[in-house]
Fold this protein.
Amino acid sequence: MKAINIEALTRDNVRRLTPYSSARDEFTGAEGVFLDANENPFPSKVNRYPDPQQRELKSKFADLRGVRKDQLIIGNGSDEILDLVFRAFCEPGKDFVVTIKPSYGMYKVLANMNDVKLSEVALDHNFDLDVDAILAASEGAKMIILCSPNNPTGNLLNKDSIKEILEKFNGLVLVDEAYIDFADKASMLDELTNYQNLMVSQTFSKAFGMAGIRVGVGIAHEEIINILNRIKPPYNVNGISQEMALNRLGRIEEVASEITQLKLERSRLINFLEHQDAVIRVYPTDANFVLFKVSDANKYYDRLVEKGVIVRNRTSAFGCENCLRLSVGTKEENNRFMEVFDTINI
């Protein structure tokens, strides 16, 4: 394994921090007369605090992904995981982080929230990594963030390129895999045993179809997880969300079936778009959306909205001029998009 000094990467105040200990951290039993947490004693579904460490959820998710539960941290969406990483490792007003462009806009928001400079390195003409440019920009950086499959481009980043960055960069490399279940190639989780500086974030919002419960997962070396647990809020994932996520994990065959259906619909949408004279280019995708280029994205977006079909206008994103991003819907929703798009004349 490539090893790094994780303690040295950590902010000084976080290294000295004694984490908050909640009542449910100090007693983890399921039976008893609970008079320790100042809760309302009258029974309801939500009168008791949830498990602050999400132990059962970690155990089930770890089994699904083939990792250990001590390698997991659960967050209120993967955005909270990313925020915790910024707060644990990046000194405000001093450190900087590198990411790619175009990519997920929340990285810049989180960097600004934490007063951390963000350097963006352009992807190449195929929306893939320029390893030399990333490594050059990352000299002295605390972290590199890579979204794979990338949003808004949809493509899976080259795994060998990510491994080269992991090998040559001595900071943390966070790979955001929100859309990984829609890709045919393996997750970077396979590399956790080889790189101590690798962290992977995943989510229940996409393939699991649970955007409304806000549950994200960070997977990394246990030393990184221990540091993040020092600053994690005590009850950051509510009990209802934990229960619903566990229920969904118990129906994993249903999830797999939905992913298969969405992949088939994705292929159908791509085939439709590739045969439209109005479409200049359809970009390869490993996600549950398709990025495509038209002559005037603003006009096409407006025409679609007029007919009640809402896509995402990405023309303002770097390298995505006149591009629209189309989420894969149900067969009926996709049929409606195709019907409307076919009638637009610009």
The longest strand covers residues 96-101.
